[in-house]
Amino acid sequence: MWVALLILSGLARAAIPNAMLRGMQSLPKLSAPQRSVISPNGTALDITTVYHFDQLIDHDNPGLGTFKQRYWMNWECYKPGGPIILMTPGEVDADGYEGYTTNDTINGLIAQQQNGAAILIEHRFFGYSNPYDNLTPKSLALLTIQQAIDDLVYFATTADLPMPGGDAVKPGQAPWILIGGSYSGGLTSWTMVNKPEIFWAAYASSAVVEAITDFYGYFTPIREYMPQNCSSDVQAVVAYLDEMFTVNDTAGIQTLKETFGLGDVVHVDDFANAIQNNLFEWQDLQPDVGPGAIFFQFCDALEVKNGVSAGPEGWGLEHAIYSWGNFWNTTYYNSVCGSEDAETCLGTYNTSQSYWTDVTVNNPTRSWFWMVCNQVGWYQVGPPEGQPAIVSRILQPIYDERQCVNMFPQAFAYPPQPTTTQTDTMYAGWNVNVPRLFFANGLRDPWREATVSADGLNKPSNPNMPIYESDGFHCSDLITENGYVDPTVAAVQEAALMYMHEWLAEWKPNA
């Protein structure tokens, strides 16, 4: 079990008032393996070595100059003629993700099979790859999907790589493969659409290709696959909260908040947002995670009474309120908030907090917030009336859009609506149709409804653009070990290797 390596951006169970950032799409963290890495000429390779590339600050205005973009590289499997495999981990500090250059991941399995070299490059405005020394709105104006795509292209077409012969493996001289997962999986698809002549093939895991403002679908796979008794009781508590909100029963709401130890949370939407945190723990799950995971601790707290588990209908509202509240009081509050008071930890209305005002670099929540507010949305909110709800309908996109003003008052005078329609039009979204792009998704992935495997989309798989789906979770197929545990994940990985072998056999260098 590689749970020690699975840390979602350092965000899990941290005092983050905005739950949409608790559900932030992040790759499982995978650091360099303990084994020795040896280059083809027999010398030791330190794959934690940081290299720097002179990346353009603004691809629309090259005269602004360059900034240092960090990358890591592993060429232990490389032979001349092999592919160059490029990945950005997306919205994180990339340091500590070097394992994605090894055969602990699909990246390295492809490199191993095809005699390739693997590169991990840090996304602009994350970690220490920053065009400017701050994260003010003026600087973040250059944090866009298009600039990120152009970064990948400019790197591929101009970088002289540090391995022997690394100055003669640009696209046209060698086949390049682009790999991504989660947001960076979406970025992989968008790059193949926007710049179709650069990367010969691509692999997109849990790729959120469709930008969606009102993304209540995040909770659909969770509700479908979580223990049914747990889902029933969560729905009962959520319906009770929403009913009290509808009739303006402030006393009843206060009593409920106090049951959870959250009586000091001033605003009811912040309370609804706080208890939503328990559902976000689902995103930490992988095929080899056992019953001790905190999500299952939460469900056991609700559903196991005197050693007996509830039936599929749960124990009912009264017990659910008591047991869920007790879980917060005895276990969960401390893991989320530590010694902070509830309003400081979970409130979103005090805009003087450093959470909203800190503009120093390597603040992934702030950089990601900028992208969410402007281009992609994905606000994880309550569903429409008539659909089962495991999160409160009090939470609607305006709850998150208001916080965009909190975070970026210089940019937004009023709550902005992200330009999701424009994003999906420009980069094809669910309508993607490009050759040699392999999609891998998981049935249990909470981000599934933004992928090409979304319910009701029925997008056909074909040999030019295969779409495979395992029983896995978020980006499960990227990690080699998950294939050892789950045969459906192994089948996806094996199919990807087969397609990469076929596609690379078709590549020819430029004349």
Structure, briefly:
The protein has 511 residues and is of the alpha/beta class. Helix content is 37%, strand content 11%. It has 18 helices and twelve strands.
Tally of alpha and pi helices = 18
Biggest sheet record: 8 strands, mixed
Q: Helix/strand/pairing class, anyone?
A: alpha/beta
How would you describe the shape? Answer: globular
**How are the strands ordered across the major sheet?**
1-2-4-3-5-6-11-12
Per DSSP, what share of the residues sits in E-state strands of 2 or more residues? 5-15%
Quick check: average pLDDT?
94
Rg (C-alpha, Å): 23 Å
From the N-terminal CA to the C-terminal CA, the straight-line distance is 48 Å
Helix content: 25-40%
3D structure, described in words:
By secondary structure, the chain is α/β, with parallel strands linked by helices. It is built from 18 helices and 12 strands. α2 (106-114) packs across α18 (487-506) and α14 (364-376) crosses α15 (397-407).
State the main characteristics.
single chain, 511 residues, alpha/beta, eight-stranded mixed beta sheet, 12 strands
Annotate the secondary structure layout:
Elements: H1 19-22, E1 51-56, E2 66-74, E3 84-87, H2 106-114, E4 117-121, H3 137-140, H4 145-158, E5 176-181, H5 183-194, E6 201-205, E7 212-214, H6 220-225, H7 228-246, H8 250-259, H9 268-280, H10 294-303, E8 304-305, E9 308-309, H11 317-337, H12 342-346, H13 354-357, H14 364-376, E10 377-379, H15 397-407, H16 420-427, E11 437-442, E12 467-470, H17 480-485, H18 487-506
Parallel strand pairs: 3-4, 3-5, 5-6, 6-11, 7-10, 11-12
Antiparallel strand pairs: 1-2, 2-4, 8-9
Helix pairs in contact: 2-18, 4-5, 8-11, 10-11, 14-15
